[in-house]
Write a structure and sequence with these properties.
Layout (H helix, E strand, L loop, with lengths): L5 H13 L9 H6 L8 E4 L5 H7 L6 E5 L2 H11 L8 E5 L11 E7 L7 H11 E11 L5 H22 L23 H11 L4 E5 L3 E7 L5
Parallel strand pairs: 1-2, 1-4, 2-3, 4-5
Antiparallel strand pairs: 5-7, 6-7
Helix pairs in contact: 5-7
Length: about 230
């Protein structure tokens, strides 16, 4: 729950509407750093307009599959990828993540701001099954704010969000809303504590961390021979 007065909230809304920036794409460089320098097949779950899938293709020696349940955003991902040099190695498919993902195994599975759209524990178990032995899962997720730590991070994120919005839009004459921000959104229902408990149950040894800008990250490497 925010403690800011309504007038301040309205001013912030106007400021950010004029200076949009993609909080999820902000974590893409960090995500890529969690992966091996080279890997084989990769899967991006909830790929949206395909920005991350195209990044993954730059390191993949095989092919990258991006999936999303929204046919309209998948069409947009294909349009944006068509002129790119790596277009032949990236495929986008509109499919339900829980029932229609082609079997792997995949060396890399990523999921950014999408796992809270799915049954959480079942989705993590699916990702575990799809990963090849030694493969890497990286999730950037959203959790419902609860408790003093979340409130403190939220309080820090508000001014940081203003600074980032100004920096990323500096010099632009008009706001350009990133295509990725047109994808469907949904509020997170699980709190961070429950996210961590379920993740550790399904993915023993996973690394879960709170992050700025209302996100958390999860990294898990599937043991060799499993």
């Amino acid at each position: 729950m925010t403690i800011l007065p309504p007038a301040v909230l309205r001013a912030l809304d106007r400021f950010h509407a004029a200076r949009p920036w993609d909080h999820n794409a902000h974590y893409h460089p960090w995500l890529v750093r969690q992966l091996p320098r080279r890997y084989g097949p990769a899967l991006d779950v909830g790929c949206g307009s395909g920005d991350l899938a195209r990044l993954l293709a730059g390191r993949s020696t095989s092919a990258v599959l991006g999936i999303d349940s929204d046919p309209a955003i998948i069409d947009r991902a294909r349009q944006l990828t068509a002129p790119a040099a790596q277009a032949a190695s990236v495929t986008f498919v509109a499919v339900d993540a829980m029932t229609g993902v082609p079997d792997g195994p995949y060396d890399v599975v990523t999921c950014v701001a999408a796992v809270h759209h799915l049954p959480y524990a079942d989705a993590l178990a699916l990702f575990r099954r799809l990963l090849a032995p030694g493969g890497t899962l990286v999730v950037v997720g959203l959790a419902r704010a609860e408790g003093p730590v979340d409130r403190l991070l939220g309080a820090v994120a508000v001014p940081a969000n203003v600074v980032m919005a100004w920096l990323k839009n500096r010099g632009r004459r008009a706001a350009v809303r990133p295509v990725a921000m047109t994808a469907r959104t949904r509020a997170a229902e699980m709190g961070y504590g429950e996210v961590v408990r379920e993740a550790r149950r399904v993915l023993p040894g996973c690394r879960v961390r709170r992050r700025l800008f209302w996100r958390y990250t999860l990294v898990w490497r599937k043991p060799e021979g499993s």
